[in-house]
């Protein structure tokens, strides 16, 4: 089915939902429709038919079966922090929100796992792990509001990928409701399981187009010891890559991020945080490592001094307390929230790490030529080849015109992505925002196979239609 509204009368759909959930958990008021029908993108006006708030796997299954029976579309909704329109309901869909499925249970200290409802907040899971003396390492700026189900559906990455990988690396098992209403328990927490296809991996990153993630068995690890950050000022982007190679070859880094002076200016003005050092630099690198002993700190300082002598680094500062660590990280992590007031057009692109300097240079040249009057904010995860290009909307332009202009130039950006063998969506998903550009990163054969996979799990097309591809 398409993303068009169901032909079934609205009252009949709401009556069916009420019969499953009760009237208190089916919302049709305008505030709820606007709140639950959107994510952090601002390009689409939400227009859902109703909001369903299930509390159990059985209730989710019943809602999906009703969708197949009455032929209405479902859009899954987690923390609504997505940046590609994957959770936008703009065409009369029923939003299934997982806010009430937020329990953590069945913790096993030997396996170091716990079972989470899809609505568990990322930060909630991080705190739970800490209470057990363990660590959940997937982290990003929206951890205080994003939900585990949404993290899994988009295979969220964030700031620690260099050391600990993406969300998929921490999903030991999944319970899903497919588009046809079947409940599947996938992998069941096993570390080793080569008995046929690993269907769990299909649902990770599928953006709710195959079915709904309702529970997940999440893996924990040991907590890092005395995390320490270095913020280094750099003259040019080649210098960033040189110091990355130097540090990475001799130390185990937990993160390696970068941001521009323009990004830093916005954050400092917005938050009141102090600059890392007095003199501005074109770019900044943020390195993090475990200060296991005095020798590790001494090694970090030696490498820093070597990079200064090489002319790659202009200045730097190291954290010596937890508060200082948090403040240095905020210089990087507060960028997205800070620039949101300018309605940024975001590109989340990647290539292999070795090609990043040329990749960024080519993209920056195109963007600067195309947008001489637009403000450009760069930041990203150098340690995994992921760059975030943010174009800020001028006050003089309306939103529709601005997004249309950015969309035209994005074709040129994605031509560069394709030339470098990269991805048009490194970690935010495809959703509505990137689906017209999927072919820049995936072959026609791959897309055709994806559509066949969707048909298997969602034969009536009720699951998040219009996302990733039509």
UniProtKB/TrEMBL annotation:
Q: Which Gene3D superfamilies match?
A: 3.30.465.10, 3.30.70.2190, 3.30.70.2740, Uridine Diphospho-n-acetylenolpyruvylglucosamine Reductase, domain 2, Vanillyl-alcohol Oxidase, Chain A, domain 4
Protein keywords: FAD, Flavoprotein, Metal-binding, Oxidoreductase, Zinc
Q: Describe the location of the FAD-binding PCMH-type domain by residue ranges.
A: 44-223
Write out the coiled-coil annotation as residue ranges.
none
Report the domain of life of the source organism. Bacteria
Gene Ontology molecular function terms on file? (R)-2-hydroxyglutarate dehydrogenase activity; FAD binding; metal ion binding
Alphabetical list of InterPro entries matching this protein: FAD-bd_oxidored_4_C, FAD-bd_PCMH, FAD-bd_PCMH-like_sf, FAD-bd_PCMH_sub1, FAD-bd_PCMH_sub2, FAD-linked_Oxase-like_C, FAD-oxidored/transferase_4, Oxid_FAD_bind_N
Which EC number(s) does UniProt give?
Answer: 1.1.99.39
Q: Which protein family is it in? A: Belongs to the FAD-binding oxidoreductase/transferase type 4 family.
Q: What is this protein called?
A: D-2-hydroxyglutarate dehydrogenase
Organism, by scientific name, is: Spongiibacter nanhainus
């Amino acid at each position: 089915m398409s993303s068009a509204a169901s032909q079934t009368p609205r009252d009949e759909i709401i009556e069916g939902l009420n019969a499953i959930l009760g009237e208190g958990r089916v919302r049709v008021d305008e505030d709820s429709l606007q709140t639950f029908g959107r994510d952090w993108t601002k390009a689409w006006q939400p227009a859902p038919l109703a909001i369903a708030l299930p509390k159990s796997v059985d209730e989710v299954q019943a809602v999906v079966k009703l969708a197949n029976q009455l032929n209405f579309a479902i859009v899954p909704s987690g923390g609504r922090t997505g940046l590609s329109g994957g959770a936008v309901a703009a065409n009369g869909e029923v939003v299934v929100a997982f806010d009430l499925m937020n329990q953590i249970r069945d913790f096993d200290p030997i396996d170091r796992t716990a079972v989470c409802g899809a609505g568990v907040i990322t930060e909630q899971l991080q705190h739970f792990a800490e209470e057990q003396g363990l660590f959940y390492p997937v982290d990003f700026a929206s951890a205080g509001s994003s939900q585990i189900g949404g993290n899994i559906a988009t295979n969220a990455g964030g700031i620690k990928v260099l050391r600990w990988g993406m969300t998929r690396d921490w999903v030991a098992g999944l319970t899903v409701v497919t588009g046809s209403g079947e409940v599947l328990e996938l992998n069941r927490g096993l570390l080793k399981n080569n008995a046929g296809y690993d269907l769990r991996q299909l649902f990770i990153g599928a953006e709710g187009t195959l079915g709904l993630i309702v529970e997940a068995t999440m893996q924990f690890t040991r907590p890092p010891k005395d995390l320490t950050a270095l913020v280094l000022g750099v003259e040019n982007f080649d210098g960033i890559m040189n110091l990355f190679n130097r540090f990475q070859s001799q130390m185990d880094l937990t993160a390696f991020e970068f941001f521009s002076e323009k990004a830093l200016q916005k954050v400092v003005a917005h938050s009141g945080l102090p600059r890392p050092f007095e003199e501005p630099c074109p770019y900044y690198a943020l390195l993090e490592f475990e200060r296991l002993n005095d020798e590790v700190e001494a090694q970090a300082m030696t490498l820093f001094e070597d990079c200064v002598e090489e002319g790659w680094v202009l200045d730097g500062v190291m954290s010596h307390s937890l508060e200082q660590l948090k403040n240095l990280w905020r210089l990087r992590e507060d960028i997205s929230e800070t620039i949101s007031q300018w309605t940024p057009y975001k590109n989340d692109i990647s290539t292999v790490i070795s090609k990043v300097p040329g990749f960024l240079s080519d993209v920056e040249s195109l963007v600067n030529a195309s947008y001489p009057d637009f403000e450009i904010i760069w930041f990203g995860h150098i340690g995994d080849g992921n760059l975030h290009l943010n174009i800020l909307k001028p006050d003089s332009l309306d939103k529709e015109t601005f997004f249309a202009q950015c969309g035209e130039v994005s074709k040129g950006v994605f031509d560069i992505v394709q030339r470098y063998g990269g991805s048009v969506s490194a970690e935010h998903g495809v959703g509505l925002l990137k689906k017209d550009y999927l072919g820049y990163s995936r072959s026609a054969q791959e897309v055709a196979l994806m559509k066949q996979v969707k048909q298997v799990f969602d034969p009536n097309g009720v699951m998040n239609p219009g996302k990733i591809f039509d």
